[in-house]
Design brief:
The protein is mainly alpha-helical and about 850 residues long. It has 33 helices and two strands. Among the domains are: about 5-200, no CATH class; about 280-320, CD2-Gal4 (Irregular); about 670-830, no CATH class. It has helices at about 5-20, 25-45, 50-80, 85-95, 100-115, 115-125, 125-150, 155-160, 160-180, 200-220, 250-255, 265-270, 280-285, 295-300, 315-320, 385-400, 410-420, 430-450, 455-460, 465-475, 485-500, 500-520, 540-560, 585, 620-640, 655-665, 675-685, 690-705, 710-715, 730-755, 765-785, 790-810, 820-830; strands at about 345, 480. A two-stranded antiparallel ribbon has the order 1-2. Helix 4 (about 85-95) packs antiparallel against helix 10, helix 26 (about 655-665) packs antiparallel against helix 28 and helix 32 packs across helix 33. The longest helix is centred in the first third of the chain and has 30 residues, at about 50-80.
Length: about 850
């Protein structure tokens, strides 16, 4: 049973040596001696067969472990005598330990292969067990000492990464002890610990140097905190993770439902129940220790800690003791358009007894307003603002959210007209509440850009009370399925993604898909596509609005499903509606005919004489985005089922077909939708620059997903292709193309930043930028020589990484996920398992 300790202590000690390696030639020589000791142990293991005779060999291995211990201690002494190291020395040492990979792999595999032999030998001589365990304990302690010695010699920026490095050793050590005490051998069961991998260590230290430098250049006044890497959120719009072998989708990779790995102390410590959390921790959905005046997380991140002073800060049981009151409101708002709500309503019997009155999880902290923020206190009010201020928020929504993807399903002139008409009580209008909530964030962002000192947490919290009200209204009227409630639910989903509540976003996406199916907006309202029978059917505006709403639900379902069949609820073949028209025709209520999603032809029931000669002239940016999403769906599904695919280098393979389709789509873009200087300024003038950016970033992200077959270690592809030697040129071409598309994303983001943070408003963008960083770092550190930091390619790419980090820093005001993603990029490399 002590074989798990042998395997684990050796792997832990080796990892400690490699991670600590960052010194000059003397340390490099010490590491070489340790490598030789590993080779010696490995050779002895190859002759080890167990039994009583084999016990002598086991004792010989124990003696060789003593030699390994001496080598570690000698290297520790060398490190203690070494002066403080610089970046160049760190990179030199990391290159020296790369050769440990093969030796360590072989050693660990040998220990696993000789597990039964160790059992028979150890059982034969009881005293050998104590000797081996004692020696390995000494190796563990020596490894810790070596790690501390070398870390103390690192430059201060890298020293801050020490918790990230050491916690990995401690975590695995605790896991090994638990497994050993339970009688579970490492690598002998399906739930065993993964095999130790050291090949990533020299590269990850190089990455640490790069990212720390980038972070300081991107935000000189903001210190780098290694602990923040462990708080990195899960990518909601990932599309990049595979299904488990059981066939069940990894839900945590899609919606962030699972928790991050616990730290060593938390591994055994019972979670303490805390009944309060600060504003920042609530917004990021992070555990808060509730300490006043500043919680531990805010102290570590060196940000201002604020606690709300409203009843919502009480625990749920305390809130239930109070009687909720509905705030009075003196103004009202009409429904979406001209008196047609009844047409789009499905009558369902009320079940008031099942309506929940308990506090909802969306409630955000917003009450603490001081000094310069006092003028914006109305953004945190539980009641909707007066009509004049509500109009300002609606304008912010239509400027920043409405143009993105397919969110343009509300007819702006009709909506603003109905706002001024004040036809319905405002407290029952979920759509107005969520529009004001989304607009409030960008209104606060605008105030910050104009010079008002506002923290990102405050900007994200603006309007959160109205979003909470919208959620209550939607869930209360869940049995009243209407187009307006679907619009509100769909926008609420985007809102909760922005604040980092991915579990709620996951559930809302499913609810929106079901509502769209109940409303049957996947079908044309009638064959009267040109609305000639106006007295019998809805208006032009309402019909186009229904189409756009369905397409927007389709996009959300595609992003959540990420190519996993079990998570996809809307089938392409069920969409029997034409693509949305361009924004000009929609705004001006111009009747037009467009094409369908796949066939590139008008709907089949439209007679030939009614069909325009070129329907694409009536299509805008949303239509092209939808066609890209249809291709993206198939790309992600292909990646999830590589075990069923043809070899990618074959001309008729699925890879070749999808690659050709992606490129054909890109080449089909009209000049007004290409990412050129002229198109950028044209789209900026019409508030569509953000939509243009996500159109092109989404394309490059899809190409990265398709070409990820060349980087199975980065994406942990379950059924990766085995590229034979003769296909090396093809593999290198795939890897280079992957890298180039990641760089293209960074270049688009750089251009977008020149025009303001609001251009980066799409909630999918943080994930795309994050993936761009991962790919560029992976290519520089895994696919080329990590020591060659002066090559033109590296010199060109590092500034792109820097700009991505700058963008994420600026985006944290409107995306809760943005700030930690730069740390998550580093964490992915440090915790990578090749």
């Amino acid at each position: 049973m002590h074989h798990s300790i042998i395997t684990f202590f050796l792997s832990t000690s080796l990892l400690g040596i490699v991670r600590a390696a960052s010194g000059p030639d003397a340390i490099v020589a010490g590491i070489k001696n340790v490598t030789n000791d590993i080779v010696t142990i490995n050779s002895t293991l190859n002759t080890f067969n167990g039994s009583l005779i084999g016990t002598l060999t086991a004792l010989q291995i124990q003696g060789q472990a003593q030699d390994l211990l001496s080598g570690i201690q000698s290297t520790t002494a060398t490190a203690n005598a070494t002066s403080v190291l610089g970046q160049a020395d760190s990179i030199t040492v990391t290159n020296s330990v790369t050769g440990l990979q093969t030796s360590v792999y072989s050693l660990l595999d040998n220990f696993i292969a000789h597990h039964q032999a160790f059992e028979t030998a150890v059982l034969g001589v009881a005293s050998a067990t104590g000797l081996v365990e004692s020696d390995l304990t000494n190796i563990k302690n020596a490894t810790d000492a070596l790690g501390n010695a070398i870390i103390s010699k690192l430059i201060p920026e890298i020293q801050k990464l020490a918790p990230l490095v050491l916690s990995e050793i401690d975590f695995h050590f605790q896991r090994a002890l638990q497994m050993e005490s339970a009688g579970v051998m490492n690598g002998c069961t399906t739930g065993g610990l993964p095999r130790a991998d050291v090949s990533y260590v020299p590269r990850c230290i190089f990455v640490a140097v790069i990212v720390v430098g980038i972070w300081q250049q991107a935000s000189p006044s903001s210190p780098f905190h290694a602990d923040a890497a462990f708080a990195a959120p899960v990518n909601y719009y990932t599309g990049g993770q595979e299904q488990e072998s059981s066939g069940v989708a990894r839900v945590d990779n899609h919606v962030g439902l699972s928790k991050q790995n616990q730290t060593t102390d938390a591994f055994r410590r019972k979670r303490e129940r805390i009944y309060r959390a600060c504003v920042e921790c609530r917004l990021s959905k992070t555990k808060c220790n509730g300490v006043k005046p500043s919680c531990m997380r805010c102290q570590q991140r060196r940000i201002k800690c604020m606690y709300e002073q409203t009843p919502q800060s009480l625990p749920a049981w305390a809130q239930r003791l109070t009687v909720p009151t509905n705030p009075a409101s003196t103004t009202a708002v009409a429904s979406l358009s001209d008196g047609t709500r009844e047409i789009d309503t499905v009558p369902v019997t009320h079940h008031d007894a099942y309506r929940s009155t308990s506090p909802d999880p969306l409630q955000q902290s917003t009450a603490t307003i001081v000094d310069e923020k006092s003028s914006l206190s109305w953004l945190t009010s539980p009641t909707l603002p007066p009509a004049k201020q509500a109009r300002l928020l609606a304008e912010q929504y239509f400027t920043n959210i409405h143009p993105l993807r397919c969110f343009a399903f509300i007819h702006k002139p009709s909506f603003l007209q109905n706002m001024e008409a004040r036809g319905l009580p405002r407290e029952r209008n979920a759509l107005l509440h969520i529009i004001c909530a989304l607009g409030a964030q960008f209104y606060a962002l605008e105030q910050q850009e104009e010079g008002l000192s506002l923290e990102p947490g405050f900007i994200r919290a603006a309007g959160s009370q109205w979003a909470t009200a919208a959620q209550h209204l939607i869930l209360t009227d869940l049995d009243q399925i209407s187009v307006q409630n679907l619009m509100a639910a769909h926008l609420l989903q985007d809102y909760v993604v922005r604040i980092g509540n991915y579990a709620l976003a996951f559930m809302l996406s499913a609810m929106a898909s079901r509502m769209s199916q109940a409303l049957q907006i996947n079908l044309e309202y009638s064959t009267d596509i040109l609305c000639k029978e106006t007295e019998k059917h809805p208006s032009i505006t309402i019909r186009e609005s229904r189409r756009r709403l369905m397409w927007s639900c389709y996009v959300a379902d595609s992003l959540v499903g990420s190519g996993v069949d079990q998570l996809t609820m809307i089938n392409d073949d069920d969409l029997k509606i034409q693509l949305p028209c361009n924004e000009r025709n929609f705004t001006q209520q111009i009747i037009c005919i467009t094409e369908t999603l796949r066939d590139r032809q008008p709907l089949p029931f439209i007679s030939p004489e009614l069909r325009p000669s070129n329907p694409q002239d009536n299509m805008g940016i949303a239509a092209y985005f939808l066609r890209h999403m249809e291709i993206r769906r198939r790309v992600l599904r292909y990646i999830k089922h590589l075990d069923q695919a043809k070899l990618p280098w074959l001309p008729d393979s699925e890879f070749s077909v999808l690659d050709a389709e992606c490129k054909a789509w890109y080449n089909s873009l009209p000049p007004s939708l290409q990412f050129t200087s002229t198109a950028v300024y044209i789209r900026k003038d019409t508030h569509q620059l953000g939509a243009l950016c996500i159109l092109h970033c989404g394309y490059h992200e899809t190409m990265c997903d398709l070409y990820r077959i060349g980087a199975p270690h980065l994406y942990k592809i379950r059924a990766a292709f085995d590229f034979p030697q003769e296909q090396s040129p093809f593999l290198h071409s795939v890897q280079w193309t992957l890298f180039e598309h990641a760089r293209s994303i960074a270049k688009i983001v750089e251009e977008a930043m020149r025009h303001g943070t609001r251009i980066l408003a799409d909630s999918w963008l943080p994930s795309i930028i994050y993936d761009s960083c991962r790919i560029m770092v992976y290519y520089l550190t895994q696919l080329i020589d990590p020591s060659d930091t002066k090559t033109p390619l590296t010199l060109e790419t590092v500034p792109l990484l820097e700009r991505n980090v700058k963008a994420l820093k600026r985006m944290q005001a409107i995306h809760a996920v943005a700030e930690p993603l730069v740390f998550s990029t580093l964490q992915q490399m440090l915790l990578c398992r090749n």
